[in-house]
Amino acid sequence: TVPNLKGLSKEAAIGKIESAKLSLDGIDSTESDFEAGTVIWQSLEPGQSVEEHTSIRTQIPKGPSESGDRG
Q1: pLDDT less than 70: residues of the chain
Q2: How far apart are alpha carbons 39 and 60 in whole angstroms?
Q3: Which positions ≥6 away from 49 have C-beta within 8 Å?
């Protein structure tokens, strides 16, 4: 079963992925207004039943744009 990773730190998310016997396919960094360093998106829906070693991707923001230009 796919765990809910949203709001977890990178380390906590990796631990949950390993405990669920899934494979981490990658962590994407993105500029965002969400808190830096916590998972905001995952490629598989939480609670979904999948086979062991299914790949999952996550997205973790690195913080807001440095430019400060909001248009």
Answers
A1: 65-71
A2: 5
A3: 1, 2
What is the pLDDT at residue 32? 84
d(CA 14, CA 66): 27
The span from the CA of 44 to the CA of 55, in Å, is 9
> 3-state class of 53 per DSSP?
coil
The one-letter amino acid code at 31 reads E
Tokens of 32: 């965002």
How far does Cα 6 stand from its chain's mean position?
Answer: 6
Looking up tokens 């360093």 gives 37
Distance CA 28, CA 63 (A): 13
Measured distance CA(23)–CA(53) in Å, rounded: 5
